[in-house]
């Protein structure tokens, strides 16, 4: 300590800085360093869940300057302010968030009754469930109680965090053999940062890669919050308007018109349809029409659910795969552009033409 004071004192020798003032400066710096919080997680091979958990915590003011300590030593972990993915303890009251213990079976739904997600949580899910609303509130600079924060909180879990939880816990997206492999997920990309079996790396090399993983995770997490809060949520009003105005589009009420075709509408549509009591089989909304970026119009079949490729009523089979004049002749409407081979979407050069395609499709039996 004395040598530190002297070196600082002599470094300021060109200025009239007293030894006492220099000593106070060092003590102030040391106090600040000692007050930095420590996030504990395990060493060795790292995974997406604890990398993301650490990245999320560092978005909070209280952990923004925290250091990440990677160890399995329980004595060292006991000195950490918060511990994720190691330690064998889940206890939010002392900021311990491990999920590996045999008795652990927590899900979003079990920790927050009323929410639908039952996937077993990883350390990422645990941190998100407990701190996610606070993080989003901080990032959006609005009240934690606001509808936007609450909706974003739900959507980011469903559209991002749950995937990390499931992968870390070995839960497949499907029953039976997979048709293809997904190797470009965030979990895969972070996992690929780990040392290869035939590489020799120092602790510093591993720390650098862990930090790179945190940057990747943070960037993707922030991108999801940005999307759901600034793109997805504002689209809701457009979908409300489309549903409420459907009878002014067509007297059947089975065709809706969106003001902007680029907006994410499906999740809002199914939520609002259920909320409004409109999902009655004999009068379901079957088609959605909207302008595209080229100035043409599209007519699209409504799927069975927001994530389904199956449709309530596809565009007629005899139209599928046709284009331009050939399609004009088949459906009896001039100005047609195309019908996708699966019948899920078609195009016309005008709004009126797209609407007429929808009306004719309604009249043709499936």
TrEMBL record:
It holds the Pfam family MYG1_exonuc. GO terms for cellular component: cytoplasm; nucleus. Belongs to the MYG1 family. This is UPF0160 protein MYG1, mitochondrial.
